[in-house]
Amino acid sequence: MTQLLNQDEKPLFGIGAVSRMTNISEATLRVWERRYNFPQSARTEGGHRLYSQQEVTRLQWVKQRVDEGMQVSQAIRALQQAQREGEALRAVLPFVQPQEESSPLDNYQQRLLEALLRHDTNRASTILAEAQTLYSLEVLILDVIGPTFHDIGEGWSRGEVDVATEHFATNFLRHHLLMWMRMGPPAYQVNPVVLACAPGELHEGSLLMLGVLLRRLRWPVIYLGQTMPLSELTAFIEDVHASMVVFVAMTEEPACALMEWPHQMPEIARSQYPVIGFGGRAFLEQPELASRISGVWLGKTLPEGVETLNRMLHEMNPLPR
Prior knowledge:
By secondary structure, the protein is an alpha/beta fold. It has 16 helices and 8 strands. The strands form 2 sheets. The chain has a 5-stranded parallel β-sheet with strand order 5-4-6-7-8, sandwiched between helices. It has a 3-stranded antiparallel β-sheet with strand order 1-3-2. A hairpin with a 5-residue loop joins strand 2 (42-43) and strand 3 (49-52). It starts with a helix and ends in a 5-residue tail after the last helix.
């Protein structure tokens, strides 16, 4: 998973793209770099600036502070102080290792959950922006976004969170995940991975997180979302020349519906291309379901699924790692 964690530091974006992503003019970016030595940029052989995702995140954080009324110099100093305080923390945050109860990531997760339960989108956005200055997006998704999805769902199932609040919170998280999926680094020029929820499946949080993590690894993805009818997929898959199709099923009924995909998509079943993968909570609660579905079970956890897909995609597409 080192590749995932280092993705933020690669210089990928030109100054025009960064200007569009941050809503900061190119002239202002040049002035800030000359005056404050911020943001940091690499140079192409032709002398053009290139910025990493990490620098884009820092710029977005500073821009938000400036929009709130802080002076540019003060915002940059605040960012640098936050980074100094968080530097030691990042070294002890493995990609998949569970965090201690008192960890700063738990603190961010609880603050985010509380803000969403109070319907405070400004506060929730600030918390995410602050966390992004200290942690990679991969860590943020797995240790903050994922647990927040879980806690909101559990609260709703226990009757502690009303339906409107559950929709509000999950749509807030969904919006950010879709944005991060669109803002991923330049994708490899290979056939895409199609991501879809199984028929009848409305819970798309884990599928969205999977999409962002795959895009962070530079794999092109096409996101279809909730409750995808199998009978309508074949023509679409052929049209986009998909290399893989990944389904998520969180409950038993959608998982059972997936058993029908070879009958609903017979041409794909005969050719065994594209590869069909599947995962989700349904297969943890009833492991026997996985053995009744044709295709590749992606594993018990989201990181395991990302690792499996990344390995398979590299096998299909020999590329430099």
